[in-house]
Amino acid sequence: MDVKLGELGSWLGGRDFTPNGIISAFRRGHDRYYNKYINVRKGGIGGVAMLLAGYVALSYLWEYDHIKHDRWRKYH
After folding, report:
1. Closest of 47, 20, 49, 18 to residue 35, by C-alpha
2. Cross-referenced Pfam families, in alphabetical order (predicted)?
3. pLDDT digits (tens, 9 = 90+) for 4-39
4. Domain membership of residue 60 as a residue range
């Protein structure tokens, strides 16, 4: 998170883009999210609500072409 824009190329060059590296990056991201928002002492609905809101936003973006096409269809 502390990467400057000028250092982005060298930072990306040091990343592991093998299948195991990508899987471990997703695992680290999941662990960070889980420990920050889900696995807390006095947890609330915030972490789960953020996850659901992200899911709704992504599913809307994925289906936007279909929704846009249906918007102009006449049903009569």
Report:
1. 47
2. WRW
3. 889 888 988 888 899 999 999 999 999 998 888 888
4. 7-70
